[in-house]
Amino acid sequence: MNLLVTGGAGFIGSHFIRSILAKYPDDQVTNLDKLTYAGNLANLRDVESDPRYAFIRGDICDPETVDRAAKDVDAIVNFAAETHVDRSIQDPGAFIQTDIGGTRVLLEAARRYSHRRYLQVSTDEVYGSTEGAPFVETDPLKPSSPYAASKAGGDLMTLAYGATYGVPVLITRASNNFGPNQYPEKLIPLFITNAIDDRPLPLYGDGRNVRDWIAVEDHCEGVDVVLRRGRVGEIYNVGGGNERTNLEITEAILKALRKPASLITPVADRPGHDRRYALNAEKLARLGFRPRRGFEEALSATIEWYRTHESWWRPIKSGEFRAYYEKQYKLR
Ligand code: NAD
Ligand code: TYD
After folding, report:
1. Pick the catalytic residue: 82, 125, 155, 274?
2. Cβ neighbours of residue 287 under 8 Å, at least 6 residues apart?
3. Which ligand 1 atom minimizes the distance to the CA of 177?
4. Which domains are present in the chain?
5. Ligand 2 center to residue 211 CA distance, Å?
6. pLDDT digits (tens, 9 = 90+) for 62-96
7. What is the pTM for the complete model shown?
8. Which end of the chain, N or C, is more open, meaning fewer C-beta atoms within 10 Å of its C-beta?
9. Residue 243 CB coordination number (10 Å)
10. Annotated catalytic, 329?
11. What is the sign of the dihedral through the CA atoms of 143, 276, 270 and 312?
12. What does the pLDDT read at residue 51?
């Protein structure tokens, strides 16, 4: 397949591109990425000279750029998004623009060029919080944060283009990802890199909020299964099956790095903080996919990656991240 992957310089998109090029010798990948604060071409150093890979710097909200990138491909896989809940609370505008508006521009291109597939990469956060049974794909959307609401808008626009114009759409909704190359604003890489530097770990609220974690490599395999074997018009949850409280994650990080519990710093809760995410992933299992990586092993490997790749995260933490984090920390 000849794929247009958007947001491929980010955390998950870069893993996806690497896995596609490794797995399918005949596939080609064009990566369209705006290189926002979260986009980092260092994530793709190992594939940038592959003749099957091309990079275009551009915005998915710009129809001309998208048109040029989408003309000759078979399918679009859309990872491009503003992704951090706390930033969406500080300033929702860019989230609506990219996660809904940009999605629409990509869908228009898929419609114009009669692509074989349009896959929208979405999140469990669109369902909101659950105290009961894990979410299934037919559950109503009840997003809590501006991020989740924007992703839900992108999902609905995707379904509308399927129903109205016959675009062959697919949606995946994944649990919280973790692994190498995740921007250190998110819980796991923030706490690993802060702990390495003996800096406080700001734990929101009572630390008992639960997330269902999936290794990024498993998520990418799940997306690929849906892209190639999913039924057009359908939504597939990509669940990790690893529910943990934030406190459990924090303690595991501190233990692995042999750092004291005194680094844990309870701070004011996030507004609208969802208590628990949980996904039922049986529908995807029926396509023959289940995550392969054990949570503890994958977390250890992630901690080890950050421990041995300071040259990746130190420039980030002393650059754009710093101003964001200082503002964020004052809010808490
Ligand atoms: P990320 O923030 O690491 O990367 C996002 C990428 O999109 C960056 O490279 C950025 O430059 C690019 N981008 C942003 N706006 C753009 C625009 N207007 N035009 C072109 N490129 C743009 O995000 P991530 O964690 O890799 O998430 C990727 C996708 O997966 C997102 O759609 C997200 O909603 C979804 N998702 C993430 C998680 C998670 O735990 N991280 C879980 C489920 C789903
Ligand atoms: P995050 O990585 O931002 O992912 P999401 O909000 O999309 O699930 O946060 C994961 C959990 O960790 C969430 O319950 C909020 C919590 N959290 C903290 O307690 N402290 C922090 O500094 C951050 C960034 C998150």
Report:
1. 125
2. 225, 226, 229, 230, 236
3. 40
4. 2-177+213-238 (3.40.50.720), 183-211+244-271+294-328 (3.90.25.10)
5. 9
6. 999 999 999 999 999 999 999 999 999 999 999 99
7. 0.98
8. C
9. 18
10. no
11. negative
12. 98
The predicted structure's pLDDT at residue 324:
86
Q: Which of 175, 186, 274 should be mutated for ligand 2, with most atoms under 8 A from CB?
A: 186
Contact 93, 100 (CB under 8 A): no
Say how many C-beta atoms besides its own lie within 10 A of residue 330's C-beta. 7
Which parts of the chain register pLDDT below 50?
Answer: none
Q: Extract the tokens encoding 25.
A: 């010798």
Q: Tally the C-alpha atoms within 13 A of residue 152's C-alpha that lie toward its C-beta.
A: 17
Q: Which residues touch 294 (CB under 8 Å, ≥6 apart)?
A: none
What pLDDT, on a 0 to 100 scale, did the predictor assign at position 328? 82
C-alpha dist (Å) from residue 304 to 194, 267, 311: 14, 27, 14
Judge whether 173 and 235 are in contact, CB under 8 Å: yes
